[in-house]
Design a protein that fits this description.
By secondary structure, the protein is α+β, with helices and mostly antiparallel strands. Helices cover 36% and strands 25% of the residues.
Length: 498
């Protein structure tokens, strides 16, 4: 059916429903709020699963239920309806002789209406647990028709834009977000058991720090100054290490003024944690154990199925250095020249990569890595030894100052986590902030600001530590088999409706 015809039909249906609502307003309270249910569908199914019709009839178990009517079948003096509440679905059996006027009113109700019913539990001849209604009320008149029951809400963008409808008609969507909540709960429980302290740090910051990203800018009227939605909580969490909280984490939103894609949303959920007297290797081990714990809890074992692939979380995860990964992806590269900026610039040019004039060997290495290596990191893999040039907050390796004790964790060609031994040398940190400012002045909008207060905090002394950030949305994508980040965000950002 053409869109304009469908729209015309919807308008006609809405006009009909509005007329029904008008009649209800004339008759009394149109949207009552005095019905109280005492049972949920899933609980009733679970509690009375083994009881037959004869036993239920003998007990006369009375319940009050409520939910959205997703189905109705009128058959003269007896009818069926199906209600959906937050836990599941339950059938109503309705009889004219029992309900009287309410039965006649029911005939005029529409799929999508929210209904309350009181009655006794029964089981139909087909074996379905139902409520034989003795009282029935319309609680909410739905003015918009739900999508066709056979086709559901098929338009993907409409599912994202009208998530409330998606949640009504798609059980898989509801399950995705239940799983998301469970994952967040598991993360908190895991860290709480390790004596990490959950904290909250500012969402609006005078200086955006903790990541290389473009921030959102807002203005505080009372202070008459620009503020930034945070791109990361890192520098505030590390201030807490200075203050003596030795294990801290925050699970909350970050905001980055970047593009939209299947893997990126301008606001997203991150878990960041910091531990004093730990290093990069400790946190690789922590990530490995955490991912295995999540797999056990969510997948029932160490194999995780995602978009036709099977990821093995059973054995020790592969660990490979950045330069080693680049050499493996392009054996033609001269391993002795992987820190030669001129040579790397030529290699980037051959691949059609656009680089900046101020990019040094470390930044050029990462350009090559992202182009040639990332997509091949399918099984769980730690990539470590990132160049210091692209790791302005990570500790340089004592034996090789070109690189830092930093890792990123990949599954299915996607980065899931980023961690490193923290830089706690205030003079080194100040120097790297100056380098970032120089990049910003040269046109790099994502380069960091100079945070003088953070340097001052380091001057009081931050214990040796490690830090870790985990992208919660991507973690949820992995464990719910979701192809797009929009599938795991209740209300993803979208372009304006036309």
């Amino acid at each position: 059916m053409p869109d304009h015809a469908a729209g015309h039909d919807d308008n006609a249906l809405m006009a009909e429903r509005r007329a029904k609502l008008a009649r209800r307003r004339q008759a009394g309270v149109a949207y009552p709020n005095d019905f109280r249910r005492d049972a949920l569908a899933a609980d009733l199914h679970a509690t009375w699963a083994g009881r037959d019709e004869a036993w239920l009839a003998q007990q006369g178990l009375r319940v009050r239920v409520a939910g959205r009517m997703l189905f109705k079948r009128v058959m003269g003096k007896a009818s069926f309806a199906k209600l959906q509440d937050a836990s599941g679905q339950l059938q109503l059996y309705l009889q004219a002789e029992t309900l009287g006027d309410a039965y006649e009113e029911f005939k005029d109700w529409d799929v999508g209406d929210i209904v309350g019913a009181e009655g006794t539990l029964m089981r139909t001849r087909a074996g379905e647990l139902s409520v034989r209604a003795t009282a029935l009320r319309l609680l909410v008149k739905s003015l918009r028709p739900l999508p066709d029951k056979w086709h559901g809400l098929a338009d993907t963008e409409l599912r994202y834009r009208q998530r409330y409808v998606d949640l009504i008609v798609n059980a898989a969507t509801r399950e995705t977000f239940r799983t998301r909540t469970r994952i967040v709960s598991l993360l908190r429980s895991y860290l709480d058991a390790l004596n990490f302290l959950e904290v909250e740090t500012p969402m609006m910051q005078p200086i955006p720090g903790g990541a290389v990203a473009r921030p959102f800018v807002t203005h505080h009227n009372a202070l008459d100054r620009d503020m930034y939605l945070r791109i990361a909580p890192e520098l505030y969490l590390k201030r807490l290490l200075v203050g003596g909280f030795e294990r801290v984490y925050e699970l909350n939103r970050n905001f980055r003024n970047e593009g939209l894609s299947t893997q990126h949303n301008p606001e997203f959920t991150m878990l960041e944690l910091y531990q004093a007297y730990a290093d990069c290797d400790d946190f690789m081990n922590l990530v490995e154990r955490l991912m295995q714990a999540l797999a056990d809890a969510l997948a029932g074992g160490r194999e995780v199925h995602y978009q036709g692939q099977v990821f093995d979380f059973g054995g020790p995860f592969r660990r490979v250095a950045v330069e080693e990964a680049i050499r493996a992806a392009d054996p033609g590269l001269d391993p002795s020249r992987l820190r030669d900026a001129g040579y790397l610039r030529e290699a980037c040019a051959r691949l059609g990569l656009q680089v900046h004039a101020q990019d040094g060997a470390g930044k050029l290495q990462i350009e090559l890595f992202e182009k040639t290596c990332e997509q091949g990191l399918v099984q769980p893999t730690f990539v470590h030894s990132y160049p210091a040039e692209v790791s302005p907050l990570a500790r340089r390796r004592d034996s090789d100052p070109f690189v830092t004790d930093r890792f990123e964790f990949f599954v299915g060609g996607r980065e899931i986590a980023n961690g490193f031994s923290e830089l706690n040398d205030p003079e080194d940190q100040a120097e790297r902030f100056h380098e970032q400012v120089a990049r910003k002045q040269a046109g790099d909008a994502e380069a960091m600001f100079f945070d003088a207060d953070y340097v001052r905090a380091l001057e009081y002394g931050m214990p040796p530590a490690a830090g870790l950030g985990i992208g919660v949305d991507r973690l949820v994508m992995l464990f719910t088999d979701a192809p797009s980040i929009r599938d795991v965000l209740l209300f993803p950002h979208l372009r304006p409706e036309s």
